[in-house]
Design goal:
The complex is a heterodimer of chains A (312) and B (426). Chain A is mostly helical. Chain A has 14 helices and no strands. With 426 residues, chain B is α/β, with parallel strands linked by helices. Chain B is built from 18 helices and 10 strands. Chain B is globular and about 60 Å long. The chains are: A mainly alpha (312), B alpha/beta (426). Chains A and B meet through helix 3, helix 11, helix 13 and helix 14 of A and helix 1, helix 3 and helix 17 of B.
Chain lengths: 312, 426
């Protein structure tokens, strides 16, 4: 019918191209988002769905071996396991809460010290950030040497002031606190960075007004600076908290599989690793991971709610 | 950031699951490639082979792509890659007693039965029975042993001489000597203490006290009177005469360090690690270290005598013939002798009957090995599918005993748990 149109003369390809660009034009919002969506689908949603599926089977030994659908049996096994699972939950939470608490308080203190310009500021900042750039496994190995009960530097230092040698990482009760200390050492700088960014963006007026009214430094911090900083503090808690929940490297590097002979530092992450890589119980391990995922999502949700309340 | 922890595991799951599709698609190379991909553990044996690889490449025209990993990393690699049915590995160095059974059951290891039989010169018959049994699964040969080991007693000649003590021949003598030699800065005795790591070295004590991990009918035997005595003895030695503040996480590197730093008089460990004590770069006791057979318990001296490592071919590899060529070369009589001279006890009978095979060994060590090879037991850990879990169960009482808890009660608990484990695995 349209004999005269040039498109017709150049044949089918041109019209196919036109069709495609018209189609692409109509669906451009999907098209541009496609790479990101595929990425999310392949690397997040698919593995998550697969883990969820595995958690409902009795897969063990090899994931390629035949496995049966067992429903929620794995979850039941895990949730009634008072020997490994619940202690691991307890350790994960106490590790996170104590480490996070120390990091936020120390981080705030250091950030306040660095807030106002001073001589040599640049050097101090670099020095404080050093632990942050070290690899966690290397940090683990370093502290393991320092805390060695027989030849370690820490006990030699204690010996100089007459304190008897401590077991540190090898003690049943002292292992977890020692790893918390290592975590605080490494990650406080990150909290400092976040809080410092928040502090610098605060305007000086409220602080000045409070000063005019005769408020002391302590009052100014608790009644002016801290409330204004709350959204930033919550961001710091959110980022560091999730990171702390899923700590693996320093625990594995210092205590190995199973978190030590008494599972002293076995958190959920270390437990799930052991279940899949040491015991090859993929079904059970997946159930632990799904529960762990729910704990993380849950704590994230709580914090986001809190943040919204604060921002209002 | 928020989802990173999930992603970490998801990545493993993805790796595992992607493998499913990968193996469905069939392999890209139907005829073997000229590159043999070999995965080896960090070991003295590996160092020797690595240096000799150019020789293999020259004579065969093949290229070797070597990946070398620590024990744990190697294990994890296999778990991910073999689970995924990956064909990226052709030759794999594995631990027959730790993973061999599970790998064979999962179909990760190619059947080498016809390959080992085809060359009389290479001579499969030259291999000792124990190691061969450990690399055979349901009558199929799934691997070739490369390194064997037995538990021996490492001791300090100078300390014994100064105290006028003879080398202990029985467990009682060992305890008495450890007691006498233990002082403020030197422990009388050291050995592995980690729940899982100690199991293999504890096994020889268990056998020498007349026990085993399971009885003839395959039932758990870690609660037997003999086992309880062995647990109490091994743990007691470390608790009473071991290093101060002893860690309960020690595997061989930590325990060996204490011995080679001159901080312990006696140490029971695998003979294949002896170079760590005699190499001046690693040890302060090179001149004073002596070796002796494991002291005899109530049931005699019964150390384990096992193949700690073997070479296998990945079932999913498309390059199995070339993989076998590599194994055949790496396990030849000549190479085994070379390795043995470099301090790696070999699995071939011929290298032990050849005087050159033991020429580089300390004399007392060679004598101790000869004794152990005779009365040795063929396993050093429970012979099950999930060895990792079994080791944690039967290792529990070792740690309880070291920390001074009731070893007998701990053995009963472990016995119940181990029996349940065995029932579940059936």
């Amino acid at each position: 019918m349209s004999v005269l149109t040039p498109a017709r003369t150049s044949g089918r390809t041109a019209s196919a191209q036109e069709n495609f660009s018209a189609w692409a034009n109509r669906h451009r919002k999907w098209l541009f988002a496609a790479p990101a969506m595929i990425f999310v689908g392949v690397l997040i949603i698919f593995p998550l769905a697969w883990t969820l599926y595995l958690s409902l089977t009795d897969s063990q030994g090899s994931v390629r071996a035949a496995s049966d659908f067992v429903g929620l049996e794995n979850y039941l096994t895990v949730l009634t396991d008072t020997e490994r699972f619940w202690p691991a939950v307890g350790r994960t939470l106490s590790f996170t809460l104590v480490a996070l608490g120390c990091e936020i308080i120390l981080g705030m203190g250091i950030a306040l010290l660095l807030w106002r310009p001073f001589r040599g500021e640049k050097w101090v900042r670099v020095a404080i950030l050093l632990p942050l750039v070290a690899t966690p496994v290397a940090v683990g190995m370093m502290w393991r040497l320092i805390f060695d009960p027989n030849i370690g530097f820490a006990n030699q230092l204690l010996g100089l002031v007459g304190i008897p040698p401590q077991p540190w990482l090898s003690g049943q009760d002292s292992a977890l606190p020692t790893t918390i200390f290592m975590d605080v050492w490494q990650w406080t700088p990150m909290v400092v960075l976040i809080l410092l960014a928040g502090l610098t963006s605060l305007s000086d007026e409220p602080d000045e007004a409070a000063r005019m009214d005769g408020a002391s430094a302590v009052q100014r911090f608790f009644y002016v600076t801290l409330p204004l900083m709350m959204p930033t503090v919550i961001v710091a808690i959110l980022l560091r908290g999730i990171d702390a929940l899923k700590t693996f490297d320093i625990l594995y590097a210092t205590k190995g599989k199973g978190g030590g002979s008494f599972h002293e530092v076995e958190t959920l992450n270390v437990y799930a690793y052991g279940l899949s890589f040491d015991y090859n119980q993929y079904g059970l391990s997946s159930a632990v991971l799904i529960l762990f995922f729910m704990i993380i999502i849950g704590s994230m949700w709580l914090l986001t709610m809190r943040k919204k309340a604060v921002s209002k | 950031m928020k989802r990173r922890s999930v992603v970490k595991y998801a990545a493993v799951a993805a790796a595992l699951s992607l493998g499913l599709t990968a193996c469905g698609g069939g392999s890209s190379e139907s005829k073997g490639s000229d590159t043999v991909r070999v995965t080896l553990a960090n070991h003295v044996w590996t160092e020797g082979i690595k240096a000799a690889i150019p020789e293999f490449e020259k004579s065969t025209g093949l290229k070797v792509e070597l990946t070398q990993l620590g024990e744990d990393q190697l294990s994890d690699q296999y778990n991910v890659k073999l689970n995924a049915g990956s064909d990226e590995i052709d030759v794999m160095m594995y631990r027959p007693l730790q993973e061999g059974k599970a790998f064979a059951r999962n179909g990760y290891l190619a059947d080498l039965t016809s390959k080992v039989a085809e060359d009389a010169d290479w001579n499969w018959k030259d291999y000792q029975d124990g190691p061969v049994k450990a690399t055979t699964f349901e009558d199929k040969v799934t691997g070739v042993p490369i390194i064997t080991e037995r538990e021996v007693l490492y001791y300090r000649k100078d300390l014994l001489k100064a105290a006028g003590i003879e080398v202990p021949k029985t467990m009682e003598e060992l305890e008495a000597a450890a007691k006498k030699l233990s002082s403020a800065d030197t422990a009388g005795f050291v050995a592995r203490t980690g729940k899982s790591a100690a199991v293999t070295q504890f096994s020889s004590f268990l056998y020498s006290f007349g026990g085993d991990f399971t009885d003839e009918s395959g039932k758990s035997a870690v609660g037997s009177a003999e086992a309880k005595k062995a647990y109490a003895f091994y743990g007691g030695l470390i608790k009473n005469y071991g290093p101060k503040n002893v860690s309960t996480d020690m595997s061989w590197p930590e325990a060996m360090a204490i011995f080679t730093q001159g901080k312990a008089a006696f140490y029971t460990e695998a003979d294949s690690l002896y170079k760590n004590a005699t190499d001046p770069a690693k040890s302060k006791v090179t001149e004073t270290v002596g070796f002796a057979p494991l002291p005899a318990g109530p049931a005699g001296s019964k150390p384990y005598n096992i193949p700690s490592w073997g070479l296998g071919v990945n079932q999913a590899s498309a390059n199995q013939d070339n993989a076998w060529k590599f194994i055949k070369w790496a396990t030849s009589k000549e190479r085994t002798l070379e390795a043995q001279k470099a301090g790696v006890p070999g699995p071939r009978a011929s290298v032990w009957s050849d005087p050159a095979g033991t020429s580089t060994y300390p004399k007392d060590l060679a004598a101790a090995i000869a004794v152990s090879a005779e009365n040795g037991v063929g396993h050093d850990r429970p012979q099950v599918l999930t060895v990792g879990k079994a080791r944690e169960i039967v290792g529990g009482p070792i740690v309880s005993s070291i920390t001074g808890a009731d070893a007998s009660a701990a053995a009963d608990t472990a016995n119940t748990a181990f029996q349940k484990f065995l029932d579940d695995e059936k």
